[in-house]
Amino acid sequence: MKKLYYLFALIAVTFASCDPLSQTYKALDATPKTTAAATYTTTLGTYKSATDANTSIPASLLSKYPSASDGSSALVTFSLAPSSSNVAVPDSTLSRVSVTLATADYSFPASTLPNGTAVPGNSTAYLTSDGVINYLNYKYPTPAANQLVVLTYTYYEAGNTPSSGSTVTDSFLYFASGWIKAYTITPAQYTAAGRGANGYFSATDYAALSGFFNAFLRGDAAVMGPAKTGDVKYVSYKFTATYQKIMTLTYDGSNWVLKQTLQFLKIAGVWAPDPTVYITFPVVKNVTYAYLNNPANANIGTADARANVISFGDFSISGSGTTVWNDTDLTAALAAGLVEKIAKPVVGVPYTVTYYVYVSPSVVPRTKTFVYDGTNFVYQGH
User: Fold this and answer.
1) What confidence tens digit (pLDDT) does each residue in 241-288 have?
2) Where exactly are the structural domains of the chain?
3) Torsion of CA 218, 247, 257, 356, to 10 degrees
C-alpha cells in the first residue's frame, strides 16, 4: 500500500512540474489588469489661464485616474482667475475698435469674400440682425482671429423697434465660424454696478466683474429664455477709458460663471489636450451657407435645398420635398463649408461642427465630426 502511495505522489509531481501552462497562469496573475477606454468627467481648481490649465491638468489626470487606458478621454471643468478670463483680441484699444456709422455707410454693394462667399448689399437707412453681419463682412473681408468691433448704428427689428430703427452700440467678435454678437454692458448697467460716473471698470473691479455680469445676464429675459447648461456668453465691457475687453462666462444651469471645460485624451500613457477644433455654423441668413452658390458645390443636394439653407441659415430635414436635405448631402455641405472656412487645416486633427437643422416647428443644433486627411475633410460621425 505504501508503494502505491509513493507512485501516486510521483505521478502528481511529474504532472505539476511538466505542465507547460503553469508559468503562463502565474504570469497572467502577475500582470496588472487594464481597463477599456473610458470617458471621465471631473472638476478641478482655478488656473491662471487656459494655457496654464492645459499644462497642469495632464499630471492631475494621471494621478486621479492611474489605471485609465489609452484612448480614454476626460472632460475637465475648471475655473479661471478673473483677470485671465478675457478673450485675447488683436486690438482692444477703444479708439481703434469703435466705429460709428454715418448715413453713407448704410448703403453698400453686394460683394464676395476671398473664400468665394457672397455678401448681400444694403440699401436701407438701418441695419437688421442679418444686415449688420453683412456690413461687417463687407467692411472687413479679411478679419484677424478674435477681431473685435464695437459698432454704433441704427438697428431695426420688426415689432421691437420704431420703423426708423433705434441707435444701439453692439460688440462683435470674429471667430473661425464668422462674426458673432457679444453681450455689451450698457450705461445703465455701469450705473447699477456703481460705475456710472466713469462708465467703465478698472483693475480693482476684477474680483467682482463675474458677479456683476452674472447678475446682468440673469436679469435679461432675452438671455435667460433660451439659456442651456454649457452655453457661453462673451461679455464686452469698457476697461478704464482706453480699452474694450471681453470676458467669457459659461452657464452652469443656475449662474453664469468663470468656468471652462476642456477635453483631454490619453495617448501612449500620457494625457494631452484634445486637439479637436470646434466650429459653429451660425444661423445667419444669406451668409453662413452662401458658399453653396459656388459652381464647385452644385452637386451637393438639390438647387432648391441649397437655396433654402442659404436663405434661412439652417437645414430643413423634416417632411418631404425638394428643399429637404438627406444626411449624405448635408454631410457633404458641411465638409464643403470646412474647405471654405478653414484656410490651413491640419492633417489628422478632428473638426467638430455645430450646425442647425429645422425639425418642424423648431430649429435645433446638431454636431458632426470630420478629420482632414491632407486632401479632404472625412466624416467621422456625430
Assistant:
1) 999 999 989 888 889 988 777 889 888 899 998 888 888 887 777 778
2) 39-85+260-273, 94-181, 184-257, 277-381
3) 70
CB atoms within 10 A of CB 267: 11
Residues 6+ apart with CB under 8 A from 143: 136, 174, 179
Query: Would you state the cell numbers that stand for residue 48, as one nine-digit string?
Result: 491662471
Is the pLDDT at 227 greater than 60? The verdict is: yes
* Alpha carbon 112 to chain centroid, angstroms: 26
* pLDDT of 18 higher than 50: no
> pTM for this one?
0.61
Q: What average pLDDT does this structure show over 57-67?
A: 93
Cβ atoms 94, 243 nearer than 8 A = yes
